[in-house]
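INTERNAL AUDIT FORM
Audit reference: QA-55
Scope: verify that the stored structure record matches its stored sequence.
Auditor: D.O.
Record contents follow.
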Amino acid sequence: MEKIRPMQSVLGFWAKSLNCPVCDHLGLEVIREAGVPDLLHCTICGTEFEVSESGDSIRLIQYPQGLGVDLYGIWMPFGTLREKIKAKIENEGLNLPAMIAVTGSGKPVSRTNLMKDDWGGHEASTEPPERAVKQARKLLELGNSRGEIRQILEKDPRLNPIQIDRIMEIIEEPVRTKSLERILTLIALIMGLVVVVLLIYPTGVFDRVLLAVNGLISGEKVELIPPPPTVTQYARQGRSYGCPPTQQGAAALFGGKADHWHFDGKNWIYTDIKGVRVFVPEGLSARYSYVTPILEIKTVEGPALIDPIMAVSIDCYR
């Protein structure tokens, strides 16, 4: 059996003399798109079809969905197809004017079931028709998955596999961009949260950066991120310590330099960019922070020794 090929170019004046195989409307329009055969389009019912090179057969690409899917993508003589449609409308009592024109994508016909030679000169075309791209975008907006969209595109005999792949790339590009924007926004939020935490809980990180820069200038080796502190826990002796009233008292009880201790009304807070050994007496607790390189905040109950630590807060009143 001789293979049927679609007519690549249809003359406009000839199309005006043809009737629609579905609604019998006289005077059809020609749809021309680069890389694919011309389509004949009915402005009344929305039917679209290809014409064979010999001009005696047509293949429906789009038509009212009430006609079912049995007629989709099949080459038939115009008269035969017209009789089938007429019989279906009469036998099933269909109301043709009330039908809505949709693509025949409901038919389980894949591209491989259509003759490869049907693609003719547009088989090697890589750029898809704009109409097909718009259709794919609309399907995506309506909530169809990428797999469903690809299946619908594969049922269109006017598209080759390369064009389908290109369409999927085009419609997925905005999705990738939005995903990247979400990731960057999330990273920015996390970084902002880290900065806020660093401002709320003194860590000496910013001062440590300055110290490291000065060390590079002076030749002194200073690690930007110091090693995590070591915590030594001691056995309880049943003796509780109170809160020292002065900076000198805090330095004598906890360690470090007096001018580095600051009282906020509840806690004694100590910061030192070089790190210091701090003793937490029995009956008190300390909250300290360090970078590993993420910010870590931990709590220890006295008696304990933390060494070295850049920032610590000792809770005197619990």
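Auditor finding: record pair retrieved intact. Residues 218-315 form one domain.
Action required: none
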